[in-house]
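Entry 12.
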Amino acid sequence: MDFCLICNPIAGRGAALAALELTKERLEKEGRSFVVKMSDYPGHAVELAREASGEGHGCIVALGGDGTVREVALPLAHSDAVLALVPCGTGNDFARALAIPSKPEAALEILTGGRDQRIDTGLANETAFINVSGFGFDVDVLDAAEMYKKKGLGGKLAYWRGILHSLGHLKLRRTEINADGQALTRNVMIMAAGNGTHFGGGMRITPQAEPADGLLDVCIVHDISKLRVLSMLPRLQKGTHITSKYVTYLKAREITAVCEPCSRAQVDGEVIEQTPVVFRVAPQSLTVRVAK
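Predicted 3D structure (tokens):
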């Protein structure tokens, strides 16, 4: 099987380029054939992955962060091509869900010696995602983080400043939810539908999610004060928040949410249209390379 390496050269502030050299050395040492394609602008990796799939490359490797992984993954869904990850971004959240190590040397062991597994993807309305989609506080944080990035702060620092900013402007949205026929009403701070387990650079928002179980895990944080949110943040890092009385956690194939006031939604950290939103699972729609 030959490989197509799709690299985002600015990912990880040089980490992706270093990982690319390690990957090339490893494949050359093992006598594997490969080609390299460099992603030059947002959305370019989508084009490159579609091109690589059309060229018949069996294993298409994303070298970058979560944004690069998503761009490479989406054109490969519902195809026979295999997605492999060499994580080298800031968060590497989807790699965590697949138990792919963040150290390139360890990830390369899986690349050349792992097994291929079919996993699910998700849809938020008609926009596909591979990891986590949601609305509410997380979108407020993304908007605020973007503001701080424009002021010169780095990725993780901008994200945490975005959290503090959004806490100061906390909104609870009255939300009507239907999950596989189960009706709920909550004053929602954040609602996340997870195919993967982590988002935001390591927060275990849907810690029980299994990417191959044909279900989305839904985490709803609701009816909570600013002070309680501060105490919730460490639990979000550990994944222990799901036992809190301020959290409703469930699994479903399809979830509809209508909230007031409206919120924009996000898919894998990319902001899309406003609610209402329908989250749906697309079972067994993507093949990934994982550890044996």
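Annotation: The chain has a mean pLDDT of 92. The CA atoms of residues 19 and 234 lie 31 Å apart.
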